[in-house]
C-alpha cells in the first residue's frame, strides 16, 4: 500500500542534489527610511525560499491541462509505434536565452529536424523542446576551484549565477525562472499561432524558420536537405493544384500544414518550484474517465523528467513524480538495475499507460550493448509500455585533449550509441521511439554555429572547439550536427 500523495509529500523523503540556501536576512526592525527595505521585491527576497514558493503558488499555470493531455495522447502514439519523439535543447538554458532571436533559432532547428524525420520515417514527429524552464542543473561535484578558490558549482540560472562572484544560491531566482519561462512559452505560442511553423509552398519560398544554410560546410548535407525541401514543395504544389485549401482551418490536414505543436520540457530538479506550480485541475473531457474527474498537473511544463542522479526509488523526486498526471521522463544510466527499473515504473506508472513514461537511456557508446538488452527485456516482461528514447549525449562526454578542462562529445560516439540502440531494439522486437539531444540552433551574427561537439559531416576538429564554445554546461550539437543525426534516424527507418 502506498502512502497518500500530495504535491508536498516529497518533503518527507531524502532530496537528491539539494541546494543550500543562505538563511533569510531578518527584515529590519528600524523604521528609519535609510534602513527600511527600499522596495517590496527586495523585502520578499529577504523572506527566503518559503516566501518565493508562496508567491509561485499564486501565479497562473504556465501550461494547461488540455495541452498536457494532448501531449500525452501524442506520446501514447509514440509508444504504440505510430509516431517518433524528438526532444532537444540546451543543457543549461540561461535567462539570457529568452530573446526572440534565440527562441526562434531553437524552434527552427527542431522544425527542420522534424521535417527530415517525417520525410524519411513517414511518421508524425512529436516535438518536445528542452526549453522554457531548463534552468536547474544537477552536478557531479557541488564545488569547483576557480583561481585557487573553492566556490559553489554553477547549478543553473534558477539557483545561482555563472560569474564566480555570484555562486550563492538565491531563492529569488526561482521567481525569475517562472517569469522567463512565461515569456519564453508566450513567444513560442505566439510564433506558432502566427504561422511560424508553416511549410514552404514552393521550392523558392523561404519559410520563417529556414536555417542559415549558406554556411553549411558539408555539400552532401546541404544537398540532402535541399532535396527534401524541394520534394516537399512539389508535393504541396500538387495538393494545391488538386484543391486542398491550406487556409481552411476546419480541414485538419490543411491546419497541420499551417502550424505544428511544440511542447515544453525540463528536468524537474527544484521540487520547491515544481510543487508550487502543481495544481489540481479538471481533466479535459477527451482524457477523463468520469465527468468531473480532477488530476494533479505539474504546470511548469507539458512534460518533466527525473535526472539520472535523482531517480532513487525512495527519494523525493520519485515521490513527487508518482502523483502527476503529466507524461514524464526518467533518465536511465548504466548503474540502473533491470529490476530497479521495473520497480520505478511500478511507482510512476501504476496503471501501465502507454507513453506515460519515456525512458531516456544514456549509457554511452561503450556500454549500450552491455546495458540496454537487459533493460528492454525487463520492461517488455513487466507489461509497462513506456517510450524507449536514446540520449546519446550524457554517456559520451569527455575532456578535450586540446583544451584541458573543456567538456566535449564526439559525433562518432553519439552516432554509435544511436545506431546500437536502433539495432538492439529491432533485434528484440522492441522499438527506439525517440531521441533526447542537447543541441542549439544558435548562430552568430555572421551565420556561424557553435563549436562544442566534434566531428559530423562538417568534420569539426578538436582545435576548432575554442572558436565558439558557448555552453556553460554540457557541449551541444550545432545545427549541422543536429541535421546529421536527423538524417541518420530518417535513413534508418525501414532498414
Ligand atoms: C541533462 O540532461 O542535462 C543531465 C544532467 O542528464 P543526466 O541526468 O542524464 O545526467
Ligand atoms: Mn546536460
UniProtKB/TrEMBL annotation:
Residues the record lists as binding Mn(2+): 91, 394, 438, 474
Cofactor details (free text): Binds 1 divalent cation per subunit. The enzyme is active with manganese, cobalt or cadmium ions.
Chain segments carrying region Disordered: 1-39
Protein EC: 2.5.1.54
GO molecular function ontology, one term from the record: 3-deoxy-7-phosphoheptulonate synthase activity
Keyword Amino-acid biosynthesis (UniProt): yes
InterPro entries given in the database record: Aldolase_TIM, DAHP_synth_2
Alphabetical keyword list: Amino-acid biosynthesis, Aromatic amino acid biosynthesis, Cadmium, Cobalt, Manganese, Transferase
Source superkingdom: Eukaryota
Pathway field: Metabolic intermediate biosynthesis; chorismate biosynthesis; chorismate from D-erythrose 4-phosphate and phosphoenolpyruvate: step 1/7
Protein name, entry field: Phospho-2-dehydro-3-deoxyheptonate aldolase
Cofactor(s), names only, from the UniProt record: Mn(2+); Co(2+); Cd(2+)
Family (UniProt): Belongs to the class-II DAHP synthase family.
Pfam families documented for this protein: DAHP_synth_2
GO biological process: amino acid biosynthetic process; aromatic amino acid family biosynthetic process; chorismate biosynthetic process
Catalytic activity: D-erythrose 4-phosphate + phosphoenolpyruvate + H2O = 7-phospho-2-dehydro-3-deoxy-D-arabino-heptonate + phosphate
Binding site for phosphoenolpyruvate: 130, 331, 362
Protein's organism: Rhodotorula graminis (strain WP1)
